[in-house]
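REQUEST FORM: STRUCTURE PREDICTION
Request ID: SP-0412
Submitted by: Lab K.M.
Chain count: 1
Length (residues): 87
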Amino acid sequence: MSEGTHTVTAGGNPTSVIFKAACPECRGRFELAAGALRLAIGASDRTTFYSFTCPDCGSAVRKPAGERIVELLTGGGVRTLRLHSTV
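STATUS: Completed
RESULT:
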């Protein structure tokens, strides 16, 4: 999500956070509302990622989420799933 975020305002009041994203399949660039993204937080960097469906080509996109991206997504209201180890 290094592409960035911004807040949409209506009459000076924040209404929702919009995230800029890109699709690695079709190379489309677009903006997504928090409801279009999902964040999974696992026990390691390999199991922490965010995902969305590309609005241009319909591909399921999954990208790694480092600490800063996790902060941005959770702060922006993206639904989060915490993964737990079964071992």
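NOTES: The chain has a mean pLDDT of 85.
Reviewed by: T.R.
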